[in-house]
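Researcher: Structure for this, please.
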Amino acid sequence: PPTTSYSNDLGDREPLAAIRDSIERLPALATRWTPRDFERPYAPGKWTARQVVVHLAQTELALGVRARMALATPNYSAQNFDQDAWLTRETRLSGKDGVAAFAAIARMNLAFFESLSAADRETAMSHPEYGSITVDWIIYTLAGHQIHHLEQLEALSIPNS
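Model: Predicted structure, token format:
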């Protein structure tokens, strides 16, 4: 498997199974959260639960597009995105809507990833920070990224979650 920034979070789990699990875990975790609960940071000086959820949805969107572009565009070069700058633009999306957006985009990505052949998953693209990466790298990154942030949200210990 490819090595990513989130390899330790994913461990030896199969990435598509981990994504399936995360798609179920986040809505179940946040089902009874109030708007006030979503505004709690997971640690002092860190993002709020709402911001983490929105970030998860944004990352699904960005990396899903990268994978699709790599498969549809010869010699595709991905662009960096500034996660903090993106997040500052999403001030009106509620936590509940962020959870729904994450779940919908992650389901869409999962269905897409499940349809790919081994050759598709080895399709390469260039990235300004990571160099040459593959669609498989994206899949492994997304799976570990979801787990990483779900652990932050679980640490909130919000009642009724």
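Researcher: Any notable elements?
Model: The CA atoms of residues 79 and 113 lie 21 Å apart. The mean pLDDT is 95.
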